[in-house]
Structures are given as C-alpha cells and as structure tokens.
Queue: 3 jobs
Job 1
Amino acid sequence: MKLRNAINKKSFVPMGEYSGLDYQRPGGESPRLDNFRKVSLVPLVFLIFYEVSGGPFGVEDSVKAAGPLLALLGFLIFPFIWSVPEALITAEMGTMFPENGGYVVWVSSALGPYWGFQQGWMKWLSGVIDNALYPVLFLDYLKSGFPALGEGFPRIITVLLLTIALTYMNYRGLTIVGWVAVSLGVFSLLPFVVMGIVAIPELEPSRWFVVNMDNVDWGLYLNTLFWNLNYWDSISTLAGEVQDPKRTLPKALFYALLLVVFGYFFPLLIGTGAIRLDRELWSDGYFSDIAKMIAGVWLRWWVQGASALSNMGMFIAEMSSDSFQLLGMAERGMLPEFFSKRSRHGTPLMGILFSATGVVLLSWLSFQEIVAAENFLYCFGMILEFLAFIRLRMKYPTALRPYKIPVGTAGAILLCMPPTVLICVVLALASFKVMVISLLAVLIGLVMQPFLKYIEKKRWVRFSINSDLPDFQPVEHGYTESLID
C-alpha cells in the first residue's frame, strides 16, 4: 500500500495530452457488488445528516456553557471554520478514491500504510466512542417520562436491547439503513418546525443577544460545537456502496450541510428566544421541556419521540460507516481477511459485530466524557487527513479529481489552517484524564500495526488483498506508477 517509484509499464502519452490519475480495475470491468443495490442521492444526504448531526439533540450544552448569543454565533460561524473545509476535502478525496477504505486509503496513498493503519484505528475507535453516545442521549430524553431508565439495571438492559436491535438493522443492508434514515430525519425535524410556528408570539429578540464573557466554559462550549459539526468525512468509508459516487457524493455533502446548519440554528433560535434564560437548565434533553413550556405536553412527547428516533438514525449511520471502514481496510490487506467477509445482505458482518461490542463496552461513560474522548481521537485523525490532502495535491497536482476544490496548492494549505488551529485548541482544552486515556489509545494503535504484520508473516491469520478492487494509478511523464501496493 505504500507509495513507490517502481514502474509497472510504459505507456505512450502524446505531448500536451494529459492522462492523469484514475482508477483502473484489474482483470476486466465487472463491478464487485452486482447483486446489491447502491445508495442513491436522497438516502445518502440523510446518512451524512445522521453521521454529523441528527437534529438539535445534544446542542443544549452550548447555551449552558456560553449563553444564547455565543451559542447562536457558534452554529453560524463554526461551519465555515470546520464543516465547510472538511466537507470540501471529503468531496475531493472521496471522489478521487471511491472505495470503502475512505480516509484510510487517502492517508495510506499519501503517507504510507503505517500511518494509514493509524488513521483507521483512531477514526474507528473515535466512531465507536461516538456511537456509545446515542443510547446515553436516548435514555436522557426518556428518563423525565420514565424515571426508571435514569440508572441501574433497567438502564443497562435498555442500552443492550437497543444496541442489538439497531445492530440487526445494519446487518440487513445499507439500502434499508439509508431509507430508514430519510424517514427518521423527516420525523425528527418536524416537531421543531411546529415549535417555531407556535412560539412566534412568545419570541423576544433581546434574549438572543445575552452574553457574559466572564462566565464562559470554553472547554464545554468548543467540545459541544466540535462534536455536533464534525464527522463529514465518515461517509467516505461508504463510497464503494454509493451509486455513481463521483457525482453523487459532492451533491449529497452540499445538501446535507444546509440541512445540518438549519437543523441546529433554527431550534436554538426558537428555544432561546421564546423562554426566559436559565443557563443551568440547558443540558441534555432540555428541548423536550422547552416544547412543553411553549405548546404543552403533546409537543414534549413528540420531541422526546423524535429524539429517540434521531438517536436510532445516528447509531445506524455511524455503525454503517465504522463497519464498512473495517471491511475496506481488510480488502486492502490491513486487517485479517475475515473482516472482508460480507453477509448475504452485502453487509460486513465482522465489522458490525466488532463495532457493536465496542459500543456496549463504552456506554457506561458519561455524555461529557464520551464527547471529549472522541473529539481528542478525532483531532489526530483529521491532522493526518489534512496532511494527506496537501501531500497528494503537491505530489500529483494534475491528477484526475472528479470533484476538485477550485484552489491551488497554496489555497489547499490555507483551507486547512483554520480547522488545524481549532484542533489545537480542542486538544489543549482536554482534561488530563481524557488526554491520558486518548494517548493510551493512540499508543495501542502504534503497536498494533507491527503486531498484525508479525502475525501475517507467521501466517497465524490469513490476510489478503481483494483483486477486484480498482488500482489507483497515476499516469504522468509516460509511466504508470501504482500508489496502492
């Protein structure tokens, strides 16, 4: 998988004519998955929506940490600092490498297989930690109506049953997951549209401008914004399952960006403008209480139901991304072969089981601990992605990119600078406990890759590279050079 200069063959390229970088499929043009339906545009939009957002459930802490004005400004400005650059890079790199390895293949092609594996380990672990949030959020929204779910044995059993049910849905197929995401997304956003209409007479614009710079919890504020507006790159690990990814993926990312920003800003605008401010009350599940104050118990129940279903959508979308990432890594020989096996529904069975196990083991953590830990690991992974993006731009500037951000190398570097500064701030604000746990997780990955190479050499476990995968080959200066070994 490493970059190399070994020449496979010479090919004649007329002067002035560019061949570029393109995927070439060895041994014919037959696709790998003829028997399984690909994901189309609309389901892909909602899969991205659930990878990133799922609605305003979980944004309440931004008001608690910083007050209405900074919370509203955060969800307007932060997307331009972080979400837009990440989505643009995902569109360019995802169409350049349209396979399930996603960002693992990007980093491997630019920095070598060792760092590609580290990328895969950190992003998979970050995704599993992130997925452990959704049973927590699900129960936080329901515990006001069902106090027994707040703690103890009923809570543990509910988390376990929910994980099993949603894991089975992932097993049944990505097309089903996609259209379920569409239905859940519509249902989850509708109560906030209703809330906005009902709340119009109660709105007081002066409440939106309340701010106290001396009383801001910057760590909680930035972690909340970061968690709610990242993971745009997660959809890249499903690129091999997308219908015409070179066209569909950029469009889906654009529409999902609009949907995510609206899904956060509008409910915050209504919630902070229609009721008196008590920052201490703004925590997980508070939107259901706001709904009751604005319209009554019926809207509260709707918001709670929407939250539950939204968390289901986020869970299945994240698990799909995590499990297909493991499949993509196995198809490139980075993980044992059994991770590449598909079920009769076309889904990665072992990837799903491993991801579900991780969710169950991590679901005991608190909401804030989970957010901080996954943000820390996610930051490391994003640094590698930015490096890979810039390196491929510099090393192969004329490569064929079905979607290309309209900037040169200097522009690509500048595009990565604001989110990189933000990453440094998030890392610096992490607690000592989160920092130690996260660095320990990184250390495990640094050791794991050589260990896997050792057991491959000893043939204790079978590794293989899928011969049906397209080979990424740049054709420049008359030579064909394989980027993926």
Job 2
Amino acid sequence: MPGVVDTHVHVNEPGRTDWEGYWTATRAAAAGGITTLIDMPLRNSNPPTTTLENLQLKLHAARDKCFVDTGFWGGVVPGNQFALRPMIEVGIPGFKCFLIHSGVDEFPHVTEADLRTSLAQLQGTGRVLMFHAEKELAHVKPPLNEPREYATFLATRPDEMEVEAIQTVIKLCLQYRVHCHIVHLSTAEALPLIKEARKAGALLTVETTPHYLMLAAEGIPNGGTLYKCCPPIRTKSNQEQLWAALKAGEIDMVVSDHSPCTAELKLLESGNFLKAWGGISSLQFSLPLFWTSARQRGFTIQDIVNLMCKSTARLCGMEKRKGSLVTGKDADIVIWDPNKDFEVTETIIHHKNKLTPYLGRKLQGEVFATIVRGKIVYMQGQFSHKSFGECILTNITQ
C-alpha cells in the first residue's frame, strides 16, 4: 500500500525533547507504516514555528534524525501576519491556529480580528489555514468537584464549544475564499454546518482521529488520564455519527494527532482530569487502530488509502510526490498484513514515553516493512542503520 501520510504530529523538538523528538517520533512512524509526517508548530516545541527564524531552528533540529520524510506546518498567533509570506516562500504548506488557549503560553490563541489579517495574507497563495476549533463560552461553568471522573472533564468542553468555533471558521472561509481545515473534529453536531458550508462554496476540509473513532466516554475509567485530550472523547452515539460521516465522505481524512508528554504530566497517581496534560500518543498505531474498527464497518483498504494517504498528501501540498503508488512519485510503501493480530505492549512502542490508552489492546493489521523513497527504513522490528528521511518543504501553486 502507499505509505501513510500523517499530517498531524507533535514532535516537540526543539524545546521539549523529554516529551518526544525527531529520532523517536519518526522511528515510531516508520514502525507504523507512516512514510511522511508533518510536524505541528507547537505543543510543544519551543520556540513555536511562527517565524522564518524559528522554522530554521526546526530544520536544524530535525537534520539527520528523521527515519521518514518530514514536513512542517507554520503557526498563526496574534501579530505575526507579516511573518506568514516569508515562511510560504521557503515552502511551508500551511498554518495552524487556536481559537482557545493552546495549553502553552508561547503559542497564544487568536481573535477574529487576528484571523482577518492573517487570511488576507493567505489569499491567493494556495496555502491552508488549520483551526483548533474550540471557543471559550462564558456560560459553560460546570461543577468541578469530582476531578477523577471523566464526566467532570467532558462537561468542561461541551460540543457547543466546537460548534461555535466552526461557525466562525465557516464565516471567514466563505468571506476570504482561503482553504480552511478543521483539525481533530470530535463532535458530530458540527457535521450539518460543515455540509451546508460546502454547498455554499466553502473551501473547507475536515479531519478526525483514531481516538474519536475507537474510544468512547462511556468506556473511560475514573482517573484514566491517559484518555484525556482536547477536544474530548465523546459518547458512543457521537462516535457512530462520525463513522457515518466518514462513510459518506463528509470527513476527509484520518490522522493521528500524536500529542505525547512525560508520565509526570499525565498525573497517573492522582488521576485528576482537570489538571493532567491533554494529549494521546498513538503515532505508531494509527493504521491498525483505524483498520481494526473500519473493517468491521465495511471499509476497504482502498478507503484507507483515500483517507490516510491521498487526502493527507493533498492537504500538505505533496500530492505530486506522496500518497499513491504511481510511476514518478516517491517509492513510499508500507507492507502490512491486514489479518494479523497483535497486542500493544510497552516493549513494541517506539515513541519516547510509552504512554498510550491502547496498552493491552489487540489490534488487527501488523506492519511488516516500511520503505521511504525506495529505502527500507523498518522491517520486522528492526530499523535501518541510517535515518534516510528528508526534511521536505513544498512548492504549491494556486
């Protein structure tokens, strides 16, 4: 199959390499059949990729450490609108912003006024603006007296926070005619809005993740902070609606949103959902995670190619090189057995901190080998002696 293109990965280097780094993240990617990943501008690399100078620091940090090809998103923060074009000129395919506090102070969230100045800069460039689509709502003030209960945390991030943010995205997308992208959609309540926006001509794409498709609020134990992420994992009923939207083509792609941290930050002993770091580590397992559930719902391997290879390559401007097995494109290939079961254990995990809510789970679809541009970088638990991955900057034309 074509190698997976994962456009939503938090590598955290430079700045917080005790959380993750290029060496460990790209090995995990290779072991999971991912041949290209795109690194997010924050969460938690420091400095974030919000200027050309900071991008150069990223490129320097990644040099000679990548086992798979690696690209980079830029970031939009208040006041950096004039830093966007210089990053575009060197090959950044798009930018990420937050409509709510990002979790780290060095990457502040944007207002609608900030977005308007940034979207004006992006018009005509062919680049995408990606949104963490949640908004603070003044009336959302749930009781916080049971911090070990998942329901307490879930009540702090209700569906309407996502819906409200997506309404803002749609309004701006239609007005500025710039490609906008909703990252990690968790609520099915926004799907009718997205459908109507596309009918009205919005250049809008949407992704979701394996954790929203495989995990449900009803199954999260008290104190199970390994399951905490933002937006949160919602109900089983919501999950089934996400699957239906995938089947109908209303959700464009599936990505990992690999967001690792150290064990200390997950507060595993206290199990305090309100204070624990939010993020799920799953980079190595996104292909078998998706396949394990998708095949039960009638999805095919071609659907995986469309959702995890072709659509993601198109999002990051790499469709001329990545995402399909076509003469002239990079020889990025994953060889895997869709019928082989395996158990997620700490001994097989290659990302730095062996934290994941999937420990002990039986999955289907074991990766045998991963080939990047014709070179075997992973085979049966072993990695190439050298990191063959390249840092890729893209040249998108409108």
Job 3
Amino acid sequence: MRVAKVVCRELGCGNVVAASTGPLVEDGRGGVTVWRCSGDESTIRECGVGPTDCNGRYSLHVICSESVQLVDGAGFCSGRLEVKSNQSWASVCEADFDQQDAEVVCGELGCGAPAALQGGLYGEGEGQTWDKEFQCKGNESLLLDCDTSDRKNNTCLPGNAVGLTCSEPDDVRLVGGGSRCAGGVEWYYQGEWRTVGAVDRIKEAVAAVVCRQLGCGSTVSVLPGNTTRVFGVECSGSEPSLRECRRINYLLPGFTVICSDLLVQPDIFLTDSMGGVSRGHQGPEVFRGYNFTITCSTQPQYPGGSFLLTFTGSNRTQTQPAVNHSAAFLFPAADDSHQGNYSCVYDNYVFSHNFSSECELLSLTVTASPLPAFIIRHVVVLLILLTAITTFYLYYKMCD
C-alpha cells in the first residue's frame, strides 16, 4: 500500500483505493523490485529500487481514486479533501459539503463510514477552492457522479476547507474467540476471508494494528492459532489499519489476538414493583419511600463473571455474581442518600486474564411522592380491605 500510495501520487491519480498482486500484463517483461518505501516519496525513484527479472513472478496492481484525495492525514482514510479540477487539485469548502457527500467519498476511497467532518481539521490547501456545492444522495460510487449546484457564497473563509476522517475499512476480523475483540486474525482479500500469519517477532506489531483497527483497545496477548489458508503480513505496529502493512507472498503461521476491550458494554436499567418510578426531564425518578431495583445485564458472551454496582454519591459498592448474564440490586426504601449516578462494571476471567467493561452512567433522582398518587395508593388499600371484609361478612351470612 505504501508503494501504491507513491504510484498514485506520482501519476496525479489521487488516493490508493486498493493494491494487490497479480499476473504480469506482459510476459517476459523486465521490471524493478521496490523494497524500501515510506509512502511519503514523490516518485518511485525515491524509494529503494533495483532491477529484477519478472518472468514467472507477480506484479503490483494498483487502483487509485483518480479524482478525489485526502491529504495531510494520518493514514489512507483521513485528511483534507481535495478534488481534481482541470488537472490540478482544489480544496472543498465546508459549506459545500455534508454527511451524504462524505459517505460517497469514504466509499470511493475504500474506507468505512464517515467518522468526523470538520472544516480546517487537516489544514488549508494552498491551491484553488472547488467552486461548486455537492448534492450527493449517498449512494453514488464517485463524488464527481453527484449532482452539483453553484455555490451560495463566493468566498470560502480560512479554516473552512473540509477535513474528513473515515473509519477504517471493515476488512479485518477476529474469529473463534467468542468476541469481536478476540480470536484468529482474518483479512478479507480478493473476495474471500484469509487467515493472517506473521513471524514471531512481528506478531505483537500486527496484533497492535488489528486491535486498533477494530476499535478494541490495546493488545493483551498473542497466542498460536489456525494455520489454514495463511498469508503473511509485516507491520511496524503504528499503522492505522492492516491494509497499510506489507503483504508477504509466502506462508507464515497464524495466530490468535486478545484485545483489551474483549467484553461488550453492559446495560443498566431501573425497575420497581410499586409504581414508584417515573421518567423525569433529567432521567429516571424514584418517589421517596418506594423500593426500586437496579439491574445490570450483558449479552451472552462468556459464562460466569460478576457485576459490581458503583454509586458516585458515596463509597458504597455492591457485588453479585452474574446469573444468566445479569444481576439485580434491590433497594428497599428510597431516600435522598440514594440520589446520584450509578454504574455497572462487568468483570470476567477469560483467556487467563481479568477483563472488565463499564456501562454508561444511570442518573437517578429521588423526589417526594405526589399527593394524588399517595391518596390513590391508600384508597386502593382501603378498597382491598373493604372488599375482604365484605366477602367474609357475606360468607358467614350465607353459612348462618
């Protein structure tokens, strides 16, 4: 991908969309081997190159975006947006670009969904500014396939050049570990999922890239894994995605990666059996004197584990084992000391390591019981008593 990046730049063809190895276009043709390329070079000649006999070998195939590029970003999927206009590159004004336009650009570059869209995020271009407003529907294949209209404003103020960050492509996964953040490494390459392998000294670096690309935190451990249909990669460990690593054309042993964000985020919710919980403007409210229950739960992932319920209003914590992946914490009578923020922390010991995951805060307010509800409650109790007395009276009357 680094070599391909230089090729696209040298040809004035925008960003790399894909790079792969394939048969030579012409048999018996000589060629060069490129062994040292950072991706920042202006031409291939600036990389480490040397002559080679390409007979019977594979050549590098490159697909460039041609008319769209992201520059000055940290990787292939982020940077300042530029569009090719009359053989030169023009920045796009933030006012002329929206989320649907961003979806088209990210798709055109082979990246994931847009993650951030902000003017001036990656600096200002030194050249011209694109003079049209894009009106994409979001399903176009290319940005220049979108409809355009004349700009509403004739000027684009400094700091308003579109900076776009797309998520990394969804072409890497971890399988067989019970979590999207644990398992054997697979890469979607040329239409199929293939097991990824690496030499022992490179595995930690590859694992760091995989965990980063999947949004799974950092690497916890690297274990031997499946070696079926393996092809090799080499990473430095700093790449934002696996496709920016070097692909190797000989087989290497596969491996399993365990990332730190192994457990899914648990859920927290509030229930009661007396009608003492209501939904207020600031979140759930419990009437003073009523009991309530806070339940922590998680998706079925690994057996066992426990839930720790923390309360920010004091140092009180409660712990219960996870039964059917949930735990219920009962509070018999609400008072002002129960008001505050609650959080569930799910802990589990898997893959010989302790993992934990915390839910979003539940903000609980304790309020006075409204008078109508208080009256209704006591009226209901009186009606129940009267019904019982009447029933007993009629029963004994009939027996007499």
